[in-house]
Amino acid sequence: MSTPAFNPRSPTMRRIMREAKELSSSPSPDYTAAPLESDIFEWHFTIRGPPNSVYAAGIYHGRIVLPTQYPLRPPNFRFTTPSGRFEVNREICLSISGFHEEMWQPAWGIRTALVALRSFMETNADGQVGGLDATDAVKRSMAVDSPSFRCATCRKTNAEIIAECEAAAAASSSAAATVEVPEELKLAFKDQMGSGGGADAAQQDDKDEEARLAEGFVQTVPDGQNAAGQNAVSQNAAAHNDPAARAAAQLQAHLQAQNTAFVQQIQQQMQQQMQQQHAQLQQQQQQQWQNQTHHAHVHQNPNHYQNQQQQQQHNMNNMGGGHNVDFLQRNVAYAEDVPVWIDMAIAGLLCLLTTLMFKWGYLDRLLMIL
Q1: Distance CA 99, CA 259 (A)
Q2: Could you tell me if 73 and 150 are in contact, meaning their C-beta atoms sit under 8 angstroms apart?
Q3: Integer angstrom CA distances of residue 96 from 142, 146, 297, 320, 368
Q4: Residue 138: in which H helix or E strand, if any?
Q5: What keywords sit in the KW lines (predicted)?
């Protein structure tokens, strides 16, 4: 599979290439990810298991598939290494994946997703798509076997990949910065931990859980000169401390408000149009009823109607308009029912289409283009 023909100057391509460069120049000893040479939309990642858990001894490999609308839409994740927590080679349902697009924020990036993915390994499956509920003993056994797993595409074992990450991180001399799980994902993580938790989690109190979350945060080494731009792209700092994160959140809220206002305006216009068409239909029905009443009156009093028509004809002839009266009598017809329901159906379909575009996120891109 090769990368489709995309303009390298497009926002999607520039965003993906920036993230690939940032992950390469700021390596972490706990995880790594890079796109394939043949397809920039498919990435392979390798992560360590979260500390102080049944996965602590494990090293896990997987795939990330980015949509062509990235970062407006979230990526999808698959694990290729058995872990006892996720099924192998199946898309998994997480709050950072394509199964929950409503929670995804374009300001997040691959690095943020990897940090969150490590934390989510400690949650229970609870019937989620791609999740497993193996025993702790099975998970520990798989964790011990995972470093020897070899990816056919990368042609390296998990242990070799992580060893390269550790060497690259040790060789880097830049100042370290802390990458945290976003607050939205952290809350979802806590909810899932509280819904059942594994044996280790059930034995810990709230303070121990907070300490375990803190240990899940990964130290990275961004370039000092480009740290601000890189953090703005990948949201490596916490949202409440990073101005770029706040700006991205404000932009998203502004676009959301514009979308809502636009949809409401369209709906109001459609409603007004339907009301006008309904009024026209009532007027036409009333006119038809008057015509029918008039016909009935003429049928009951034909002589009176004929005399009235002759009198009108005589008056028009005296005014020199006899020819015009004949023309009108030949061409004027009573109003018929107009199929207004067709216009009403079209208006309803337009309203539905606008609502679906708002739900699917196409209005976001349209407003950004405008």
Answers
A1: 22
A2: no
A3: 25, 24, 75, 84, 23
A4: helix 136-145
A5: Membrane, Transmembrane, Transmembrane helix, Ubl conjugation pathway
**Sheet of 42-48: strands edge to edge?**
31-35, 42-48, 59-65, 76-79
- Could you name the CATH architecture of 11-238? Roll (3.10)
How many CA atoms lie within 13 Å of 304's alpha carbon, on the beta-carbon side? Answer: 8
CB 84 within 8 A of CB 139: yes
CB 55 within 8 A of CB 41: no
Q: Is 27 left (phi over 0), alpha (psi -120 to 50) or beta?
A: beta
Confidence band for 331, pLDDT divided at 50, 70 and 90: very low
Q: How far apart are CA 186 and CA 202, in angstroms?
A: 18
The whole-number average pLDDT for the span 278-303 is 72
Q: What are phi and psi of 41, to 5 degrees?
A: -85, -5
Evaluated on CA atoms 45, 10, 177, 238, the torsion sign reads negative
The DSSP-derived string for 240-252 is TT-HHHHHHHHHH
Q: Give the CB-side neighbour count of residue 222, counting CA atoms within 13 A.
A: 23
**Considering 93, 151, 154, 351, which one is annotated as catalytic?**
93
Contact residues for 200 (Cβ-Cβ < 8 A; gap 6+): 52, 53, 54, 136
Helix axes 227-234, 243-300, angle to 10 degrees: 40
Any catalytic annotation for residue 93?
A: yes
Please report the beta strands in the chain, taking only residues with DSSP state E, as ranges in sequence order: 31-35, 42-48, 59-65, 76-79, 150-151, 156-157, 177-179, 218-220
Domain boundaries, the chain: 11-238, 255-303+333-369
